[in-house]
Write the structure tokens for this entry.
Amino acid sequence: MKFTMNRSFLQNKLATILTAIDSKVINPIFSGVKIVAKATSLFLTASNGNISIELEIPSADKDAELIIQEEGGLVLPARFFNSIVNKLPQQEVVVEQMSNQQVAISSGSALFHLNSHSANDYPQLPKVSQESILEIPVHLLEELISETTFAASKQETRPILTGVHFVLKDGIFKAVATDSHRLSQRILPMDTKDTEFDIVLPAKSLTELSKTFRNKDEFITISMTDNQALFKTERISFYTRLLEGNYPDTDRLIPKEFITSAVFDSHYLNAAIARASLLAEKATSNIVKMQITAQRIVLSSQSPEIGYVEEELECRDVTGEDLTISFNPMYVQQALQAFKGEEVKIQFISPVRPFTITPLNEKPLIELITPVRTN
Amino acid sequence: MKFTMNRSFLQNKLATILTAIDSKVINPIFSGVKIVAKATSLFLTASNGNISIELEIPSADKDAELIIQEEGGLVLPARFFNSIVNKLPQQEVVVEQMSNQQVAISSGSALFHLNSHSANDYPQLPKVSQESILEIPVHLLEELISETTFAASKQETRPILTGVHFVLKDGIFKAVATDSHRLSQRILPMDTKDTEFDIVLPAKSLTELSKTFRNKDEFITISMTDNQALFKTERISFYTRLLEGNYPDTDRLIPKEFITSAVFDSHYLNAAIARASLLAEKATSNIVKMQITAQRIVLSSQSPEIGYVEEELECRDVTGEDLTISFNPMYVQQALQAFKGEEVKIQFISPVRPFTITPLNEKPLIELITPVRTN
């Protein structure tokens, strides 16, 4: 194997696939990046066993300045190869397999010899049916991921809740995540009526997925088997395992009727909650209280050791019964971030029942938060 | 005590004095910031017991928008006060002492009450003779600090070596630091012939000192007692304790005669050493080898597990005998950073004697590095 290419281009592509590499790998082969040179393309593959990314660099891509001098494949230590490429002195880099299981990487007067592994030692990528079952724009998939993954559980006590539930049925694509204290659901109406799926993707994989696809204008195809999903654009294939088990029925958790509601600017409310939660940081329980009356809404919090804080909130369209409710400010702050400064409506049933945050615009996004019971 | 002032201005000043606050304070009073309002100025003081910073904000300073409504003093929890000021909604902030040991901080509709301590509980600042004994520009003091502190020891085995030796004698101001593996010395000729001092300042204090004085055009006055030094500009007083003990005689360590030398661009050499040390990171000893012959200079390094690297260096004016020398690349890289891209001359005596790095320009800066013995 021998090829010459542009250093900055290679650096950029390595950064993308390194997303898949964990510092704590179980199988040492996963600390490597597989490089395969074929007649007209170079292929880079990285994996941590849970997710795998394969990236194609065609020699037709002018920016790559890629010349395949000899076909072949091998596995290089990923972090070292990446650090080396980052620090090479010239823009031209030559990678060449030597006879003795070593790979020469040269640029200008700098010459590295790295010990390599055989490409045959690298695990095969999963076989996922290439029959396309859903195609959506990258930017929409990203939006959906950023609106839901934060609500997935970080605890492994109920592993299924560390995932995000993706359901396609009757032309409705629904993504929902809950850690049993809060829930976030986004719906996308789709054109396809004849395909269906019901899978649970690890929230961690979705976060990595978001970092992988950088061209926001591209379309991405989602296909899957029983235990794997493949997200694919023209040059990037992102594989992730699925979570096994049944995701709880979350539809029944979403209330339909409310007794109190108010409208806020989501940025402003987020900042006010950040202020109110400043003193709560050190308290045994991190709680902010909201008192709603027809006249005014007041946020407050206290910590006997440090002091207390209160602030009358700017809001509009306050309707319904007076209510005092306490909540974990982090849950509300993370939910509000999904609305990016838009106006939101918050609706309450009672001090002990979950309340909902929804955008005033048409977007079918709903955030549900369970309050904290206080005495 | 009551005053009103501009939030951004206060935020900026708090950031400066918070430099003095440690997260691991021994005396809990040091987690507080002392605020004293006098007729025409507000004073902020913070300390960690080793260094103390006092900052004056005169009400004459238009940017401060400071109005002293009532004189007085108190101590507020520094981190909380700072977080609150950072997050207040309006540019006007009012701080007012209440009757019940609480302080009200308000801005717009946000109101905080913080528990405070009496200003009398706060330790007095050290009494340091205000007789000025040395005055130098802030930017020059900063340069001197950045050129020496990195070479001070991080180990507490010989506490005196964790400091930087400041000596003023016969009109020569010398700053020198060594951790016994490398040494860095900067000399400044001064106008004053009649004052002398010989002190050792903790390197950590000097690093904090660098962050404190932001107006590079000001002059700074250095005065001292037996165990304290005071660095003072018009509005900022920075106190630090001195290290006790005798600093070793470093003059005798600096060689005068050499057998081999070469001239390099310091930026370029630093990048080449960074490349050579890439594979050394994981080796048991982090060593880079330099082979000097009349024809060429080659840097190399190897790690049996990972591979090897070699690079022929661009250099000029190579003189003297052939030599092969090994060194810890970090020591040379940190030393080279002090030269900011200028050309440097490296001079060697033998593979086992310290070598020196000096700038080609006139600046009296010398870096000394002990090589690693290899077999």
